[in-house]
């Protein structure tokens, strides 16, 4: 399947060669009022039945033009009893680590954190750079082995550079408003940091342990990028899919994409038991919606967002809290913390199944 570039409202030359999300960005400017709230917005979700986590939150960047299309990137924070995992980090223009700490979503002094990039693209991985500097706790930066080098070598900047260059001319096409705390947005963009040192390259079958039996298993899903990964929780049949699967335009023609690999990865996802899926963009999906997106993609459709509208069951957040106040649903990890560091472990899993076993080793 080859994605076509929407032509309406797309006025920048070269759009056709970009990842489609860039096209979406460049084509749909809308200004929103940024005076009332922060750059990030975090909401709580119910912990899926059977998942041994203490909390699950989603953070988004409020003022990307993606937000106006409902396709802003999702950053999922999963709290276990002893450690937490953050999947994706955004553009890196504001400090996500500080936001999560200030909001009580993550206590850096007590909770080891594994920051995972679902893939190399700047709207997911660029924000990793703020974590080591901003925190004193044990933070591990991790990414799929196929994309880790892109982030470490700042090749993520290859796509980010396009963003920065184009923003110099068309800032409104990418960000609807500067973050309130940034007085000179243009100057800030010139400092755009995308490089982060990946501590741990993740491969198929690696596991991340969060305490009390909570284990997330890495699935290597090349296609969107070589190192695209998903994280799977077996007991609750929950998957975090990154950009491999969401209800929208699935991108298999970006710079490092591979259509054949994408199809293989979709086949693996189709064979997996999934009750709920938390994607890299858009709404959280029921198992039925998840399968419908796969069918949609396999059917050659460009826009799979309609399946969310046609099938009930969208997984909704529990509450909204975009400022620093904690709600009862977003419990800070302030109890029962051990000094056990999060570990990522390779157990040589079969490439066609998600291993359920786990083992531990120091990083
Ligand atoms: C983090 O946890 C420690 C230990 O429980 C506590 O003393 C500290 O106040 C917490 N920090 C925040 C910001 O909640
Ligand atoms: C450090 C600590 O208090 N650990 C406790 C966490 O909770 C489990 C059971 O809920 C206890 O077994 C641990 O001792």
TrEMBL record:
Residues 72-281 form the Metallo-beta-lactamase domain. This is Metallo-beta-lactamase domain-containing protein 2. Pfam families: Lactamase_B (PF00753). Transmembrane segments: none annotated. Residues 1-34 form the signal peptide. It comes from Seminavis robusta. Residues 315-363 are annotated as: Disordered. Keywords: Signal. The keyword Signal applies. InterPro entries: Metallo-B-lactamas, NDM-1-like, RibonucZ/Hydroxyglut_hydro. Residues 319-363 have a biased composition (Low complexity).
